[in-house]
Amino acid sequence: MGKRIIAQRRGKGGSTFRVPTRSFNPKIEYSNQVGVVTDVVNDTRRSVPLAEVQYSDKHVGYLLAAEGMKVGDVVNDYVMTLSHIPEGSPIFAVESSPNSGPVFCRGAGSSATLISKGKECKIKLPSKSIKVFNPNCRATIGIPAGDGRREKPLIKAGRKWIIAHKQGKYYPRTSGKKMNAVDHPYGGSGHGKRRSPVSHDTSPGAKVGTISPRRTGKRKRK
Asked: What is the pLDDT of residues 27-44, one digit of tens each?
């Protein structure tokens, strides 16, 4: 009997497909108090470095660091509601609803732009799509730090392995057509029995190949 294919293993879950637990598990919090940046730390699960901030009431919190932030900077009006941010400003770590916490634009270098504000605030996301937000949603002014991290080559496959497993990604991965027929629907020397197209309602084990495509076959030339 062959082993289960990756889609079945991933659906069940397990240590191979989970982000490993760590003692350093900071929570990004928005505070209206004035604080001072005491350190800039790295979180292996995020592409953006974190700014460690000590607020006026002596408690320590963490924020997504913006470009140019350094130790000793005073954090004041760093996080504001969309109604108080000037139009045309680059923003990131935008809330989807008031007091929900940062949801949009949390990756390194992925900043959005506040286009207009009023009863509704329109934001242009990095994907060029325009989304409407509540004016009471909070956001961070600036561009998230860490952009350009991919410009440095990895050099070694082991470095790629370390980065992938820190984020809980399955690496390295073998393509289905290079497997045996018992391991994957695309496996074997024939490669003839491809389950394509596949409905969205199928089981995780059978959901491989072209999932619910809009069209199949080659496009006819006019």
From this structure: 888 887 899 999 999 988
